């Protein structure tokens, strides 16, 4: 009897997130899934890592399945899984995140993508899955009770994970960043990252004691260039973006040498 491949499943919305367990339901029929995820909401922490405090890890049972709850960040969960719990995955899946993770701007801060990047940095390539929300406020509600439908997303997750388990991730990519529109109108589209997802702004308010405080905010951009992940989602396509850990600006090598090496 053939053994199923092994998948490590994590996220940044927390171990009780409905999106995480939707991914579990999608992948469990085709792989042995081990869930190791942050104990609480950890959105927008990127690849930050806990090096100044110890990490508590508890085995819990949620939705009838065992999981490991890590009192830390998504990157911590991946490292704990690989080096403390001795999980040896063929693939690491992060998500399904409640809310899209598009553009340079978003993936640099995304804990969902951060977990997949950390996995790839530790020689276990990863896929990050995110589902678009129509109401941006949904990103800030309790992820264990979110009313977003994950039914269509589950089929997409299973198909993509199955293809990657069969064929692998291209050696020139470290992570596949998948964004699923809230209403799918088209098929898969291989994309590049757009530059921005938000019109960044800061709102100044005054507290009851007359002292100012600030909220970083800003609406979503309307669209981006053809071929970008933002434009793909706006069209209703499923955006698949290959990402590399190597942030070196290779095309700037010559000009940089001319400035500093003469």
Describe this structure in words.
The chain has 262 residues and is α/β, with parallel strands linked by helices. The chain has one domain (6-260): Survival protein SurE-like phosphatase/nucleotidase (Stationary-phase Survival Protein Sure Homolog, Chain: A), CATH 3.40.1210.10. The protein is built from seven helices and eleven strands. The chain has helices spanning 18-27, 74-83, 103-107, 111-121, 151-167, 229-235, 253-260; strands spanning 6-10, 32-38, 57-62, 65-70, 91-98, 126-131, 175-180, 188-190, 201-206, 212-217, 238-243. It has a nine-stranded mixed β-sheet with strand order 3-4-2-1-5-6-7-11-8, sandwiched between helices.
Considering the chains and any ligands shown, give keywords for the structure.
alpha/beta; 25% strand; 262 residues; 26% helix; 7 helices; single chain; Stationary-phase Survival Protein Sure Homolog, Chain: A; nine-stranded mixed β-sheet; two-stranded antiparallel sheet; globular
Strand order of the largest sheet: 3-4-2-1-5-6-7-11-8
User: In the CATH hierarchy, what is the architecture at level 2?
Assistant: 3-Layer(aba) Sandwich
Tell me the fraction of residues in β-strands, as a range.
15-25%
- CATH class wording: Alpha Beta
What is the residue-mean pLDDT, rounded to a whole number?
Answer: 93
The N- to C-terminal Cα distance equals: 64 Å
Q: What multimeric state do the chains show?
A: single chain
CATH fold name: Stationary-phase Survival Protein Sure Homolog, Chain: A
- Uncertain spans: none
When the domains are counted, the total is 1
């Amino acid at each position: 009897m053939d053994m199923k491949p092994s998948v490590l499943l994590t996220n940044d919305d927390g171990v009780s997130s409905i999106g995480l367990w939707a991914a579990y339901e999608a992948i469990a029929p085709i792989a042995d899934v081990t869930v190791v995820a942050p104990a609480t909401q950890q959105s927008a922490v990127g690849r930050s890592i806990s090096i100044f405090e110890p990490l508590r890890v508890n085995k819990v049972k949620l939705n009838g399945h065992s999981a490991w709850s890590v009192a830390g960040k998504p990157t911590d969960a991946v490292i704990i899984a690989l080096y403390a719990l001795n999980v040896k995955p063929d693939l690491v899946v992060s998500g399904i995140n409640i809310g899209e993770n598009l553009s340079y701007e978003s993936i640099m801060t995304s804990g969902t993508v951060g977990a997949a990047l950390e996995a790839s940095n530790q020689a276990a390539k990863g896929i990050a899955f995110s589902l678009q929300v129509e109401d941006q406020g949904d990103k800030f509600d309790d992820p264990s009770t979110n009313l977003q439908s994950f039914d269509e997303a589950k089929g997409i997750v299973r198909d993509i994970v199955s293809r990657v388990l069969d064929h692998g991730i291209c050696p020139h990519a470290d992570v596949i960043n998948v964004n699923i529109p809230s209403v799918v109108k088209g098929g898969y589209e291989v994309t590049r990252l757009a530059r921005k997802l938000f019109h960044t702004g800061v709102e100044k308010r005054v507290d009851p004691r007359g002292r100012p405080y600030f909220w970083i905010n800003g609406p979503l951009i309307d669209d981006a260039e053809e071929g970008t992940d933002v434009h793909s989602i706006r069209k209703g396509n499923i955006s698949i973006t290959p990402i590399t850990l190597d942030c070196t600006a290779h095309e700037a090598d010559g000009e940089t040498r001319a400035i500093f090496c003469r």
